[in-house]
Structures are given as C-alpha cells and as structure tokens.
Amino acid sequence: MCAKATMEEFEALLNESFEIDTPDEGSVVKGKVIAIEAGQAIIDVGYKMEGRIDLKEFANPGEAPTIAVGDEVEVYLRNVENARGEAVLSREMARREAAWDRLEKAYAAEERVDGAIFGRVKGGFTVDLGGAVAFLPGSQVDVRPVRDAGPLMGLKQPFQILKMDRRRGNIVVSRRAILEESRAEQRAEVIGKLNEGDVVDGVVKNITEYGAFVDLGGVDGLLHVTDMAWRRVNDPKEILSIGETVKVQVIKVNKDTHRISLGMKQLQDDPWDSVERKFPLESVHTGRVTNITDYGAFVELEPGVEGLVHVSEMSWTKKNVHPGKIVSTSQEVEVMVLEIDTQKRRVSLGLKQTMRNPWEVFEETHPVGTVVEGEVKNITEFGLFVGLPGDIDGMVHLSDLTWEGRGEDVIGEYRKGDVVKAVVTEVDTDKERISLSIKAVEGDPFAEAIGGVKRGSIITVTVTAIEDGGIEVEYEGMKSFIRRSDLSRDRSEQRPERFQKGDKVDVRVTNVDPKTRRLGLSIKAREIAEEKEAVEQYGSSDSGASLGDILGAALKRDE
Question: For residue 549, what pLDDT is reported?
Fold first, then answer.
C-alpha cells in the first residue's frame, strides 16, 4: 500500500509539472539573486531553473556593479538548459530588449534619451543608452570639432536619436543636436537684447583668414577683416589672438538668421575725414607698399589711408611690365597725389610723377642735330631701336639708315648689341618719341653734290648712256635721266642718237627731289627759257622782227 501511494504522489507531481508553462527561450523573465560567488550572480528564475550571470553585466559603463542577494532582476533566457543542467541567462540582453522598447518610443516621439559615452571607434564613439549601444559620429559630438573627448567619457548626458534599425541593431545618436537647440534658445535671448550701434565686450573664439568669431556671451558675431581697422589687414592674427577680450560695435543684427556683424574700426576716428587736407593734389609724400596686383600697387600714406599707383603711372620708360618688377611689398616710395575721391574712398597716386620726364630731359640735353651713340636694343621690320641716356629708346627708320639703296636691304647688316652713332632729327615729348638718323652722321652726299643748284638753274652734264627713251647723264657723281621729249624744243631734234657718250650738254634744272635724290633735267626747257629771255630783251613778235633776227642780235651782243 505504501509503495502504491508513493507512485501515485509521484505521478501527481509529474502531471503538475507538465501543467506549468515553461518560459520560451529568447524571452525576458524575472529572477531573484540567491547567491553571489566567484564573480557571478546565481539567479533563480523559477520553474526550478537557475542560471549564472557575470557581475559585470550588472554594471553601467565606468561604474561598479550594484547587485545584492535578494534583488529581483529581469534577465534574458537564452537557453532553458545547458550541459550542466543550468539555464543560460543574460542581463545585458534583457537590458537591451527593454532599452530598445523604450528607445523606439522615444524616437517616435522625438524625445531625448540619456546615455554615456564609453568607447572610441573608427569615425566616432560608442554610447550606452541604458542597455542598448549606439554610435555617435565624430561630427555629432559638439557644435565645433572636439580635439579631446576625455572629459565627456562616462558622463551621463542627453542625446537625440537620429536613426535606428532594430532588426540590424543600429542606432545613431547626436549630442550636437541637443547643444544646438540649447544654444539657439540662448542665442535668441542674447540677440533679443542687442541693437545696431551697441558697443559690447566679447572674447575672440576663432580666427580665420577672412575675420574672427567673437563670443558675446552665448552668441557669436563675425568681425570681418575689413572691419578690424581702417588700414589694410592682411592677416587677422596680426592684431587679434584667441581668448583675447575686445571691445566691438554691433554693425548689423539679423534676428531671423541670428547673424551678427561686428566692427572694431568703427570705434576709431575715420582717417578719410581729413584726407583732402592732409594730402592735397600734386603733393608728394612717402608711403609704404602694402599690396601688389597685376594692375598696380597699393601704397599706405598713413594707417587707414591707401592709394593706388596704377601700372601706367609707375614708370616713364617701363611699359607692359608687372608692377612687382618695379616695386616690392613693404618698400618705401615717394608718390604724388593725382586724384582724390572721398565718396569712393579712393586716392590715385603716381610714382613716375616724382621724377622728371626723361624725354624732356633728353630734349634739353640733346637738341635736334646732336650726334648720339647707343646700343641697338631691338630690330623691327620698320627700323632699329637704339638705347639712349635716361633709359629711353630712339628709333632709326628704314629711310634713315642709308643714302644709297633701300633701308630694307641694309637693315640685315645690324645686330642686337651693336653700338651705332646717329643724329637726333626729332624729339616729341608728348608722344614720347625720338627720331634718329644714322645716314645723317656722314652728311648728305646729294646735298653736297648739287651745292647751290636749284630749280631753274642751268648746269652742264655729261652723257653717260644712250637709250631709246632718252639719255642718261651725270652731274657731280649724281645720275639723272633726260627723256626723249625733253631732248629738244624741236620734235625733229628729239633723237637720242644725235648724242654721243661723253658729250657735254647744258640743261635746265626742272626739279630737285631730296627724297628720291634725283634732279629733273631738260634741254627743251633750257631752249625755251633762252628764247623767252631773248624775246624780252631784243624784241617781240609784234615788232615784225623774226626770231632769227632776235637771236642774231643776242649772239652779237654776247660776242
């Protein structure tokens, strides 16, 4: 009977155990800490199941575990039974599941969540959000790049969830979004109190090539480089340093975009108010070259007042040359004030005006007719350029290279660097031109040859050649040609063959052309002139005397 009762009791207990629902694997269950030993907590999860969990799973990042015997905790049931007959439990996975439920609700409601940065990974940091691990990109840590994130590690603080995917286990959070929101509120409060024209103190937070950002107590304003001083500021670091406290004036406030423009020079006297009094037109001053461009150089006359020396006003002689080859930055130069426009805050300066015009100096020291000597600087299709005193050039035109032949034929005999002598034939200071003549150095052989010969003169020439169209003659080495129609007054005598080479013939000069270096000669013109003269002296056709009678009388008189 006793054995039968024992079997019945066992069967009843077995049936009771089957009726109890065993929790599903992969679910979160409640358990109780029944012991702590060897760095592990032994958890009783009921259903006659116990499991072990490392104590570190009960600690927040950077903190010691806070767990004691008797505490009730939620754990994740990974397996009902392992090889040792124990349940496989995880506190971390339980916290993660609970955290994901909580985070999904916060993400949907766009609410902030608390977490702590506990590790560094490529491109950012890891954040514990109370059981779920999120990624914090480096760009989302602060409103400005963070060089040292050490002070932020382990610090519990709010974050904004940017993106999350439970299936993939990805969460991306931002600390910067929280800071920007709080800063926006602070900025709105500060900006609401600022007005244009206010003078405030600020701290220089950052310096760039175009200016500096000044903290006005929770809101930053931009101090542009052009508003730092009245003078040109090439590098803001010349006058400002990070952390420095400066006094600035509010130039402009945009309360919609929260942008503030600041100025320092506005707190100083404007030097342009006295420019016309200090720098009258045509006055000469010493200034410092501050900047060089392709079109000229800027010269500082005094702090805050700069003028432009245009490239055309830099040198009398150096044309089409970059200003950097004439002056250098920081060089002190003498300049003349050419024009002032106070409205546009512009001063036009001249560098060359402080020196005498070299063409005027040359004209004074080398009047027309002076023989000069210089080096051939350039050879062109229309002549030579010769270097002259004063760093200027004179031009020898092709027509002034030689008396004989064409300039085109002899220009090839010259080379750059040759030293030549020439006569100054013209100086035009307005056009900055000097004309020279190489052929004039030795005098004009044509002028010397014809001497006092002029139009209407009777000269004796020598026949040097007989041609069908006339005869070639020579006078003092100068060749001329008499056409057939000019050989005689009578048509019957206009025959070239009646002359012999070497004959001496009297002719009348009808033209003297220095350009072509030719004499116009005519026997016919001489005969007509002689007849006219005889008629005037001895009679006329009205007196009844014949031409023979008149010429006979003239010949008798000559005898």
Answer: 54
Judge whether 169 lies within some domain: yes
Model pLDDT, residue 544: 46
- Positions in the chain whose pLDDT score sits under 50: 1-2, 18-20, 541-546, 555, 558-559
- Residue 217 main-chain phi, psi, to 5 deg: 100, 55
Q: How many Cα atoms are found within 13 Å in the side-chain-facing hemisphere of 288?
A: 8
pLDDT at 147: 77
Domain containing residue 276: CATH number: 2.40.50.140
Nearest CA among 183, 205, 160 for reference residue 258: 183
Q: Give me the domain span that covers residue 122.
A: 110-180
Domain count of the fold of the chain: 6
pLDDT at 532: 85
Given a contact cutoff of 8 angstroms between Cβ atoms, the answer to whether 58 and 94 are in contact is: no
Return the ∠ at Cα 6 (arms to 5 and 8), rounded to 5°: 65
Pinpoint the alpha helices (H) of 433-488. Answer: 445-450
Distance between CA atoms of residues 435 and 427, nearest Å: 6
Of 267, 299, 328, the residue that ends a domain is 267
Count of Cβ atoms closer than 10 Å to residue 486 Cβ: 21
pLDDT at res. 145 = 78
For residue 17, what pLDDT is reported?
Answer: 52
Please check whether residue 7 lies inside any domain of the structure: no
Q: In the listed set 109, 137, 165, which residue is the last one of a domain according to the structure?
A: 109
| 546 lies in some domain | no
524: part of which helix (H) or strand (E)? helix 523-538
In a domain, 15, yes or no: no
Q: What is the pLDDT, as a whole number, of residue 559?
A: 45
Sheet strands side by side (includes 504-513): 478-483, 470-475, 458-467, 504-513, 518-522
Q: Are residues 172 and 209 in the same domain?
A: no
Helix ranges (H only) for 125-210 are 176-193
Distance CA 85, CA 363 (A): 121
pTM for the predicted model, two decimal places: 0.45
